[in-house]
Amino acid sequence: MVNGNIISKVDAIIHPLKLNHEDYLKDGHLLNNELNRGLKSTKDSSVKMYLTYVRSLPNQKERGVYLALDLGGTNIRVVLIEFLPNKINVIDQQCHEIPATLFFSSGSQLFDFIAENVIQFAIKNKLAGVRVALGFTFSFPSVQHGLAEATLVAWTKNFMCPGVVGYDVVQLLKQSLKRKMDRSIPYIDVVAIINDTTGTLIYGSLKDSNCKIGLIVGTGSNCCYVEQLQNIDKWPYNYSEPNQVIINCECGAFGDNGVLDCLATSWDRTIDYESLNITKQIHEKIIAGMYLPELLRRIMLTLVEKGLLFNGLAPIELFVPYSIKTKFMSLIDLDDGRKDLTNTKEALKKIFKYFKCNETDLRIIFSINNTITRRSAYFVATALWTLAKRIDQVNVSVAYDGSLICKHPHYKRWVKEKVNEFAQNEGIEKVIGFVEAPDGSIYGAAIVAAICYREKRPKFIKKNGKVYEITRF
Ligand code: GLC
């Protein structure tokens, strides 16, 4: 039997998480202001709108063999990719979990670990004597001054390695590669660095030429889009063709100047105060898979303290920060639209070793979980709609990747529904398509490396007195 009295008390407590359409309109309006400010000057906006220097999208004329490296979450991935006419062939790939200690170790230890993995992978693929171009996906806020130059502005997500902020990460990677490379091994040349959103957009645009927005909703969250040069006051170069560039919005930082405070709740504020990067990545902390389960945990704890959940007795795991995994939120949301809450029960059994829970508890946990995940999806939809309106096309597609948006059973649908609601209410003729770009972040890095060589591809390269063959595939 569900206790209606408790349910209504809980509903009143979690009410601030249930934003209405007006609130999302306000969010979109505030975001649009920040986007405009960021296009004028990076320092005057919380949304930095970093220039990526990626101006050309793939045109199927890319050829050759490239390495791609991805650093952005809990793993590093290396892929060897071959571009053939009408086909991208993954020759080999490798994924390594980053040892937990490295998240806080020095930058050189982190980059040495990465370089070691890349070199071992190249040796395994018999690339000795070959000069191979590498595209590097580095998914942290970085200022670029060229395609292969990126200064880290701040660590986000769970990284905090000293000695990297303020440095060019391409140089750090090159130095580590140099330290590790000896005569018998390949010459790995880092030719491009991109953000995961950019990689996703580039990969998506191979599937659908209307792709003009890249979206990641996983451990972190962020968007990029294609902007016309004439709209970018801070564009420092010429206006030659292609007259466009991909902008890495870094919209996870939207709200870092306080503009989102009116829409955030006390739980959002506590997550922020107790995070590694206080007052930073406010939008990301409301949306991303790294923070949503922590939000769920904190809300449950509040309700236990008020005697409204688990009869006021908290299971021990509820006291451990970041102990709940995002996959359990997806499991709970499988019960969306269903009467029985078997998946919620199943998830709770996995989260808490010993717990006693009645039907009212199940209803409450399902409701909190569903509310915060929908809120995340609606914030994402608002950002997408705000970006889509800047693109002068009726059909705009969004290439997306990331564990939350790809693995959650309803997240994508909620994003689409909210975007459609915006379109209908505003009467704007715009059709937003969605293209899944699995592993786009890493494939995109290889594609960008290939785009660099689309027109001009030397057969040999001389380096330190040695001649390397560019490819023998
Ligand atoms: C964080 C990073 C951003 C990245 C996003 C998704 O927000 O700052 O660069 O794109 O996570 O991984």
Outline the fold blueprint.
Blueprint: H1 4-14, H2 21-40, E1 50-51, E2 64-71, E3 75-84, E4 87-97, H3 107-124, E5 131-138, E6 142-146, E7 149-152, H4 169-180, E8 187-194, H5 196-207, E9 211-217, E10 221-228, E11 244-248, H6 266-273, H7 282-287, H8 292-305, H9 326-333, H10 342-351, H11 359-388, E12 395-401, H12 403-407, H13 411-426, E13 431-436, H14 440-452, E14 460-463, E15 466-469
Parallel strand pairs: 2-5, 5-8, 9-12, 12-13
Antiparallel strand pairs: 1-11, 2-3, 3-4, 6-7, 9-10, 10-11, 14-15
The protein binds alpha-D-glucopyranose.
Which characteristics define this entry?
binds alpha-D-glucopyranose; 473 residues; 15 strands; 5-stranded mixed beta sheet; 6-stranded mixed beta sheet; alpha/beta; 14 helices
Strand-pairing-aware structural class = alpha/beta
Shape: globular
Strand segment count:
15
Give the integer mean of the pLDDT values. 92
H/E series: HHEEEEHEEEHEHEEEHHHHHHEHHEHEE
Q: Total number of helical segments?
A: 14
The strand order across the widest sheet is 1-11-10-9-12-13
What's the helical proportion of residues? 25-40%
CA radius of gyration is 23 Å
Strand content: 15-25%
What ligands can be seen in this structure?
alpha-D-glucopyranose
The biggest sheet, with number of strands, parallel, antiparallel or mixed sense and barrel status, is: 6 strands, mixed
The low-confidence parts are none
Cα(first) to Cα(last) distance is 67 Å
